[in-house]
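Hi L.,

You mentioned the student needs an example of a multi-chain input paired with its predicted structure. This one should do, with 229 residues in total across all chains.
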Amino acid sequence: GQNIDQPTEMTATEGAIVQINCTYQTSGFNGLFWYQQHAGEAPTFLSYNVLDGLEEKGRFSSFLSRSKGYSYLLLKELQMKDSASYLCAVMDSNYQLIWGAGTKLIIKP
Amino acid sequence: GAVVSQHPSWVICKSGTSVKIECRSLDFQATTMFWYRQFPKQSLMLMATSNEGSKATYEQGVEKDKFLINHASLTLSTLTVTSAHPEDSSFYICSARIEVAGDLAQETQYFGPGTRLLVL
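Structure written out for the whole complex:
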C-alpha cells in the first residue's frame, strides 16, 4: 500500500531551527511537496522536490532522497507565525497526491 | 504565483438542500482540478479528480451521485453537494494543477482558499 509518515507534533523555540521529516512508500514517484496549513485555512504551497538534494527558499529548505524514500523540511529562524501544520505529499505514478497526516509545529517564545 | 479562487468561502444551509461550490484558476488554465475534504483536525482527503471535458474520477467511498463534479472549462470546476446532511459539514478545498509538458519540475498544485460548509 501507499504510505506517508511524518511526526504528529513537534515543538520548537522562536529563533531556532527545526527539521520535519517525511518518509514515504508509494506506487511511483513524481515529486514530493511540502505545504503549510494554518488552522482553519487551506494549505499553501511551500516546496516541490523531484530530484535528490536540497532546495533552499528563504528560511525554508526541503531535502529529498529518492533512494531512501525520505524528505525533510528545514525551517530556520523560527517565528511565531510559523506555528502551523506542515503537510508532506507525494505525487504518485497517476499524478495524484498522497498526503501525510501533517505535523503540527508549535513555536514557543 | 498562480491563484485559485473558491466561491463561496462559507455557506450555511438546511438539511436536504443542494450546495454548489465553484473553483476557478484565475491566471492559468487547468485541465485537472482536485476536490478535497477536510474534517477538523484531520488531514486532507481527496474526494475526486476533475478532468476538463470528461467525467470526474472519484475516490473509493465517495458517492458520485451525491457529490456532482463538473469541469466545463479550463478555468472552472464545480462541486455540488446534493441533498446535504449535517454529516456533510466540512471544509472543502479544491486545487488546480499547473502542467508543463515534459517538465515535471514545473508541475505543482495550487489550492483554493477552501469553502466551509455547515449543514443544519
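You could point out the following to them. The two ends of chain A are 40 Å apart (CA to CA). DSSP finds no helices and eleven strands in chain A.

Best wishes,
N.
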